[in-house]
Amino acid sequence: MGVVLVAIVVDDVALIAQARADILLTVIMLNQTDLTPGSFILTGIPGLEDRHLWISLPFCTMYVVAVVGNCGLLYLIRYEDSLHKSMYYFLAMLSLTDLVMCTTTTPKALCIFWFHLKEISFDGCLVQMFFIYTFTGMESGVLMLMALDRYTAICHPLRYPTILTNPVIAKAGLATFLRGVLLVFPLTFIIKRLPYCRGNIIHHTYCDHMAVAKLSCGNIKINVIYGLMVALLIGGFDILCITVSYTMILWAVVSLSSAEARGKAFSTCTAHICAIVFSYSPAFFCFFSHRFGGHTIPPSCHIIVANIYLLLPPTMNPIIYGVKTKQIRDCVIRTLLGSKDTKSHSI
What we know:
- This protein has helices spanning 2-30, 52-79, 86-115, 122-155, 160-163, 166-193, 209-213, 221-254, 259-292, 299-324, 326-337; strands at residues 39-42, 119-121, 201-202.
- It is built from eleven helices and three strands.
- The chain has 347 residues and is mostly helical.
- Helix 4 runs parallel beside helix 8 (221-254).
- The chain has a three-stranded mixed beta sheet.
């Protein structure tokens, strides 16, 4: 009899414990909104708060150059008939991408540096994150498309006008944009579903994916894995295509018999190669330093390079193409001189 009573008591205790666990789980689920902060606080660059004003000066200068330069390129490509070619249509895509990419982060960073406006809403943080990663992915994709454009122009010059028609260019640009949207949207959805119980202070100038995820008390392993997968699917694939394209270009150029023809072929790729270097160098530093740098690189350095990664390409691309591309230089001169004869010049 005593054994039966003990068994009953044990069963009752187990049932009570299970009921308490179910109630606790229900309370957590019902109060999930309590674990989602209404806003985050962006601190800027930790350790350099007293130098924020000085740091803002190059940031502001680069942003102004980026906006003016890319808007100028878009104006030239829109109104100059001599620039209505596939290479310049891809350049217009790159300029639009650069404008969105730097405008998503730099104005907020300047507000932090100048006015100490550090608060950003939770939804606003997710929107900023979505635009950052979508358009950095599109930047990489457009650079890949430009490499394919140069490959077609140099290796298949006779078929070039029939391969890269306007509909093909538009579809390629749309596919690149949709790729970024489809891959990045799940990332923001995963971030939104996490419970946050480690405060709302982000030590950054913008809503970086992992900086936000580390504030969660949930399991962020899927964030790490999916973020790495997106980086490989976008960056890894694009770099592979760029490498293959320029390998084929190099092989074709070296086989040319005329030194003048080789020089002309190389010159058409110079601006694009410079754009690739300025785009991928900070990206590689951010990627490898976070994984292999450990604590040897201070957080302020990570954050500064992360901002440069989003600001340097938009600043340098108009300068590079303006200096290295004769057709754009000629169009700038004609525009400044007020010349109306835009149809008499051709590539």
